[in-house]
Amino acid sequence: MFHPLSVYVGLRYVRARSSKFFVSFITWASLVGVCVGVAALIVILSVMNGFEGELRERLLSLSAQVRVTAASTPGGQAAAAPTPQEWQQAARQVASVAGVADVAPYVELQALAVRQPEMLPVLLRGIDPRAAASVTELAHAITQGHLSDLTPGSDRVIVGEVIAERLGLSPGDALTVLVPTVTADGAPAPKLREVTVAGVFEVGLQDHDATLVFAHLEDVRALSTAAAASEGLRVRVHDVLGAPQVAARLRALLPRRFEVSDWTQDNANYFRAIRIEKTMMSLILLLIVAVAAFNIVAMLVMVVTDKRTDIAILRTFGAAPGRVMNIFITQGLVIGWLGVALGVVLGLALALHVDTIVPFLEHTFGFQILDSDVYYITTIPSEVHPGNIIVIAVAALALTALATVYPAIRAARTAPAEALRYE
């Protein structure tokens, strides 16, 4: 436990002007190093959180938050497909589960979009335009045309922006859809269907804009009679982050003929990569704080050497080695923790105003960080998580506290007689 006298002397050493310029310089360098390291960690992690949130929002714009599909056999082959009555029963069961906002059927087909001389592989997805689970996000992503144009038997489609650009499509143009199928004896027998482009959507994600083509559910089902199609239920939940819990409830409720997955499983690779990047970036930036902590060690060692006479006098007056240690631990903690506090304040100020600071820097220096010709995301997002701030602050405080241990032990081991021999 810290003795009041030790704390007082330690604070006096912090406020006192050292006769050695280098010691004073190292002190300020240590404080600034801790401050910059903590601030950089907060800003970088907040920006990465922002990019993660932006990516999650774009991925979920047209992806199912929870999907219910037909289960596969252990050998990987599709089991007997559920009947329409079984799908309707499953939809009613799903809608009754806590956390589910809406449920809608869908059908997907692998196909080729053909417009001479170009040909692109696409995913033809049949949706019900009246179901919120199917169209809530799509309606906001449409840049040309209207979702209401998708009617049964109309053979109209809504294509992604990249598909429209590569094939030179606009609303009203004709497009040929080729569905690969095989005959009973295994011979290829592709099925062609000419459709009309009713609209174009853009969500700012290559996986969607370059591959998805939407049509009415009944039109895709008509094509799926001659080809292998994936049928299922798209489930929209009240809390996106709670989708895994909702999926767990559905697995416990639905028969084994059905398989349930959520968006965290469908996009696991994306978010695993982001977590690895955040971890490595945190470790790298934490080295800045570690270097500042080593500066604190060097500064305290020099202070101990400079204060050998003071230490000897305190020991002569009866100060125990523990109290001498507390003096220099107090000095190091005040410098380190002051740097951490200033770093948290500076980091929060920068992280909360990234949307203002970055445009100012771009305008001042005449460059663009995220070029719209290269990146879908043209602004730097920032999302401050209190948990990250606490972890960063605690880690920095722990590093600076450890930095005071060796110099304090060295001070406590100072022999009074040896220190006062030549005084």
What labels would you give this structure?
six-stranded mixed β-barrel; 423 residues; alpha+beta; single chain; 16 helices; 18% strand; 10 strands; 2 domains
Protein architecture, described:
This protein is α+β, with helices and mostly antiparallel strands and 423 residues long. The protein has two domains: 4-58 and 270-420, no CATH class; 64-264, no CATH class. Helix content is 55%, strand content 18%. The chain is built from 16 helices and ten strands. It has a six-stranded mixed barrel with strand order 2-3-8-5-7-6, surrounded by four helices. α2 (21-62) crosses α12 (321-352) and α10 runs parallel beside α14 (386-403). The protein is elongated and about 100 Å long. It starts with a helix and ends with a helix.
Separation, N- and C-terminal Cα atoms? 32 Å
Q: Radius of gyration, rounded?
A: 32 Å
User: How many beta-strand segments?
Assistant: 10
Give the helix level as a range of percent.
55-70%
Shape: elongated
Order of helical and strand elements:
HHEHEEHEEHEEHEHEHEHHHHHHHH
Total discrete domains: 2
Mean pLDDT: 80
- Order of strands, widest sheet: 2-3-8-5-7-6
Content of β-strand:
15-25%
Poorly predicted sequence stretches spanning 5 or more consecutive residues: none
Helix/strand structural class: alpha+beta
Largest sheet: 6 strands, mixed, barrel
Count of DSSP H/I helices: 16
